[in-house]
Write a structure and sequence with these properties.
348 residues; alpha/beta; five-stranded mixed β-sheet; globular; binds 5'-O-[(R)-(carboxyoxy)(hydroxy)phosphoryl]adenosine; binds zinc ion
């Protein structure tokens, strides 16, 4: 066992083909190809995603090796997302990883994508001293597929405290954006249009009434759909004339819902350290509202760089490094899983 292994991380669970090489906690390279083809379909088309991962993985791999300035025989272990995600896409990535593991005779390490979003907080970005969250901390994972409040007790022991009962927050951003006629993914477009908008809930968006630490977003999405339909009947320019205010209102409402639940989780657990992860945490309004709220209430807040909020290879590689250090290797016959079926409080 090497003290400072070089671990490769392969991510292909959705529409990003990403590979990173990490030594110790430092990134040697981090390469990503985002599949733009899905924009015109309003969402990710699974068959197209798998085919593009198959095409792009060797390209991303060669670039990652070149930028890291190593040869492939210096890689000590291969880590790969095994789930949750699109099964075809996961199979392409895991088969690629298995080939590397066999060809280079190095350990294979299966990674849970959600845990990897959490562990993204342990990547070292630069030589400047950085602080990592101390255990235990709360992690709000907000992505295209999930909305989770997780209590992180250590690198491998995590407990879900709250989840969504219907749509995820990323999916809500994307579906509302679709109602407005925007392309996929709609989250960043809603953020862009929000900039000059009034966020004072002039459209009376409802607050979902969900007990405990769970979320529900389908009511807001339906409300927006009905509102736009009704207003367009009266005024065919309703969307053009109100798009900034609509985007700002929805962004504000979704952020408030997240904040309220995280505050509840803090009160319940008495853990005053909060980390944000997942694609939706790239949103600057969400980042800023959490930073302000944390400062006001004396919690510690951890927010990754934007490229490590959205899907990336480095979060898989850092998870691989941590598992390597604990000798948590997998057999070559592991298979991908599409849903969040694996318990988070195991080392799997
Ligand atoms: O974590 P991620 O990259 O992939 C999944 O694991 O799902 O998250 C993708 C989601 C999409 O729903 C996308 O619209 C959303 O993250 N997203 C954003 C922003 N950037 C990405 N949502 C709101 N504001 C953003 N700036
Ligand atoms: Zn993700």
């Amino acid at each position: 066992m090497k003290k400072y292994p070089i671990v490769i991380g392969i991510e292909s669970s959705c529409d990003d083909t990403a590979i990173s090489l990490i030594k110790k906690r430092n990134i040697l390279s981090n390469v990503i190809i985002n599949q733009k083809i899905h924009r015109e379909y309003g969402g990710v088309v699974p068959e197209l995603a798998s085919r593009l991962h198959d095409k792009n993985l060797p390209i991303v791999f060669n670039k990652a090796i070149k930028y890291a300035n190593i040869n492939i025989y210096q890689i000590d272990a291969v880590s790969v997302t095994m789930g949750p995600g699109l099964i075809g896409s996961l199979l392409v990535g895991s088969s690629f990883a298995k080939s590397l593991s066999i060809g280079l005779n190095i350990p294979l390490i299966g990674i849970n994508h959600i845990k990897a979003h959490v562990l993204t907080h342990f990547i070292k970005y630069s030589n400047i001293n950085e602080s990592y969250p101390k255990f235990p901390f709360l992690c709000l994972v907000i992505s295209g597929g999930h909305t989770l409040i997780i209590q992180v007790n250590d690198f491998f022991c995590m407990k879900i405290l709250g989840t969504t009962l219907d749509d995820s927050i990323g999916n809500t951003f994307d579906k509302v954006a679709r109602i407005f006629g925007f392309q996929y993914p709609g989250g960043p477009i809603i953020e862009k249009f929000s900039k000059n908008g009034n966020c004072n809930n002039i459209f009376n968006l409802p607050t979902p009434l969900v007990e405990n630490l769970n979320f529900s977003f389908s009511g807001i999405k339906s409300y927006i759909y009905q509102l736009v339909k009704k207003e367009l009947k009266k005024d065919s320019f309703f969307l053009q004339n109100n798009i900034h205010d609509l985007c700002a209102s929805i962004q504000q409402k979704l952020t408030e819902i997240l904040l309220e639940k995280v505050e509840k989780a803090i009160i319940k657990t008495k853990i005053y350290r909060v980390a944000l992860s997942g694609g939706v945490s790239a949103n600057k309004k969400i980042r800023n509202m959490f930073i302000n709220f944390a400062n006001k209430n004396n919690w510690e807040i951890f927010i990754p760089k934007i490229e490590f909020s959205t899907d990336n290879g480095a979060m898989i590689a850092i998870s691989g490094v941590l598992k390597y250090e604990h000798k948590l290797f997998d057999n070559i016959d592991i298979t991908p899983y599409p849903k969040l079926v694996k318990e988070l409080n195991t080392s799997a």
